[in-house]
Design goal:
Chains A, B: GO terms for molecular function: L-isoleucine-2-oxoglutarate transaminase activity; L-leucine-2-oxoglutarate transaminase activity; L-valine-2-oxoglutarate transaminase activity. The structure is a homodimer. Chain A is α+β, with helices and mostly antiparallel strands. Chain A has helices at residues 65-69, 92-105, 113-126, 199-214, 260-271, 283-291, 329-341, and strands at residues 3-6, 9-12, 36-43, 46-47, 51-54, 58-60, 72-74, 77-81, 87-90, 138-147, 160-169, 177-181, 219-223, 230-234, 237-243, 246-249, 275-278, 281-282, 295-302, 306-315, 318-321, 352-354. Chain A folds into two domains: 3-169, 2-Layer Sandwich (D-amino Acid Aminotransferase, Chain A, domain 1); 177-341, D-amino Acid Aminotransferase, subunit A, domain 2 (D-amino Acid Aminotransferase, Chain A, domain 2), CATH 3.20.10. Strand 6 of chain A pairs antiparallel with strand 6 (58-60) of chain B, so a sheet runs across the interface.
Chain lengths: 355, 355
């Protein structure tokens, strides 16, 4: 391994690349990682020397706080390569600021911009061969932070590890997604951590989602935990409803994640002349719209799948299959967004940032 | 290191003990660990060879699911040593069954009884020198399980690690505990994971608790997230209120942990002839009881502190200091319970189990 110092980041290069072992034609989402990772530790009240080094397991004490008290947050981003082999990020400022919003809510230190964004840029430059051209292809980026301080006492840790790992992905095809509307289980409390990208929010969803899977549904549409009358998120995504030609989505809140794809789709839809209403959508309203045939589409929105169309929903043991329609807004918006992300279309919004 | 096989558990002994480096007179809770730990991995759908080995850091992949999706649960227990040097556990069956209840809710595999309890027994026998005699002295036991499968996709892991680590503790003295009643933040949702000892539940409390600390309060009394009118837990403990000579505590629910100390205190109080009501206690009722001077005591109950008296509470920016009284139920029950746990009194309930 050769060690060099580049603008304060220590870089330890992997002696050989694993890239030739990877079949980029059949990637399973998030399961293969690139040659290097970025790492920076927080100790004694400050961020330490950042390092880029070969992707490898690392040592943790059995009493590390992340295992016992769950201080762990993450982000999901993607890097794209255009026809000129230039590498692009999509709205990285949004992920950076949300990461620190999550950090504050979980009583973790905020990560400085030069560590997060400069670290990411240099890591992407080193592993740029892992980013493939073409629509749907991307390098999925996973920045995350965990509590590494030791001791089994329920207080915030005084040591943390921030890391960025990279996973090549191709177009995410979720297939036919049927959902069930939550009538009992919930993903977030009022005054809770639903708006943070906190690890614990995801584990909480697995059991109810397994129950839904057994009944033949791929995902759950989460409702507010107090009344189960308001539609909030779909699985791990934000959710949109099209009633007639209006798109509806819930406002972000303490219970609802401020999704980057969500806010991007809102802007994109409005620029396409689509009427978008940001307001609480009631379960009763959805059922009513289904009955009077004004409910045209439901789709999830998130970084991994971009847009994920939902084919029908179950509520109070009744399944409502949406009619198949042509020219869906889901496909229109997904195509528009992917073309901007992959630099196949112009980006009048200034969302894409060159690495 | 010598390797021997004892009733299916592989035992790798530490070459030397760290015990002489430990000052048992000034222990900081949960910060020192004994010579050995118990470990058992879950892979390919089954539990693997259990091992007792020297306490040491272990390797994890950066994409381990525990870091990203928070599948992590734990228990808190204690082992005690009596005057004859016999070692005792307190209601270990309760912790064992609650551990598996947590596992189910977090979509993790249940741990078989012979792995959990037999593993614990053998670990305690090996590290029995770490258990000191005398009231308040104990070996704190931390069984925990984390998701070790790799891949950044929000699905349950297919690999897990179950561990038990041990930390010597002395009497836990919390000092003067003033609390603030939660009016905005919450620890649990209806249909959420508040009843599970899930790591993520604890991290969620740190930020609001830090805010309370800054205002001069040590802990928060959590209320229901939907209305903030019902008193539910105090910090990481269950909570009891004494109005006149009646003890009140909330029923366990999806939002409230089924605490072993809680249920023990209920039985112990009743056996002492104290009237105990298990029902929702309203914030308004507490304020009213304070005003008409029928509110005598508030205390938390948990494994670490056993009983933690609360000296006053703040609600809607008004601080209510409880009058100092003699012969508190908190002290009466704590003494009774610690005497049973440390085998200084008879145990007519059959709660103590010899290792």
């Amino acid at each position: 391994m050769s060690t060099t110092q580049t603008s304060k980041i220590e870089i330890i290069k992997a002696p050989t690349s694993k890239i030739n072992e990877v079949d980029f034609k059949s990637l399973s989402f998030g399961s293969v990682f690139s040659d290097h990772l970025f790492e920076c530790d927080f100790k004694n009240g400050e961020w330490q020397q950042p390092v880029i080094k070969p992707y490898a397991p690392f040592l943790l004490d059995p009493s590390s706080r992340v295992f016992h008290y769950g201080q762990a947050i993450f982000e999901g981003m993607k890097a794209y390569k255009d026809e000129n082999n230039d590498v692009w990020l999509f709205r990285p400022d949004q992920n950076y600021s949300r990461f620190n919003t999550s950090a504050v809510r979980m009583a973790m230190p905020e990560v400085p911009e030069d560590i997060f964004l400069n670290g990411l840029n240099q890591l992407l430059q080193l592993d740029e061969a892992w980013i493939k051209k073409g629509k749907g292809n991307a390098l999925y980026i996973r920045p995350f932070m965990i509590a590494t301080g030791t001791g089994v006492i329920a207080n915030p840790s005084n040591e943390y590890k921030f890391m960025i790992i990279l996973s090549p992905v191709s177009s995410y095809y979720s297939g036919d997604v049927k959902v069930i509307i939550a009538e009992h289980y919930s993903r977030a409390a009022n005054g809770g951590i639903g708006a943070a990208k906190a690890a614990g929010n995801y584990a909480a969803q697995f059991y109810p989602t397994n129950l839904a899977n057994k009944e033949g549904f791929q995902q759950i549409i989460w409702t507010d935990d107090a009344t189960h009358t308001k539609l909030e998120e779909a699985g791990t995504m934000n959710v949109f409803f099209r009633i007639n030609d209006t798109l509806l989505t819930a406002p972000v809140s303490e219970r609802i994640l401020d999704g980057v794809t969500r806010k991007t789709l809102i802007d994109l839809a409005r620029s396409e002349g689509i009427n978008v209403e940001i307001r609480s959508v009631l379960v009763s309203e959805l059922v009513e719209a289904f009955k009077n045939e004004t409910l045209k589409e439901i789709f999830g929105a998130g970084t991994a799948a971009v847009v994920s169309p939902i084919s029908g929903f179950s509520y109070q043991d009744v399944y409502h299959e949406l009619p198949k329609i042509e020219n869906t807004m889901a496909l229109q918006l997904k195509t528009k967004l992917e073309n901007i992300q992959n630099k196949l279309d112009a980006d009048p919004f200034g969302w894409t940032v060159k690495v």
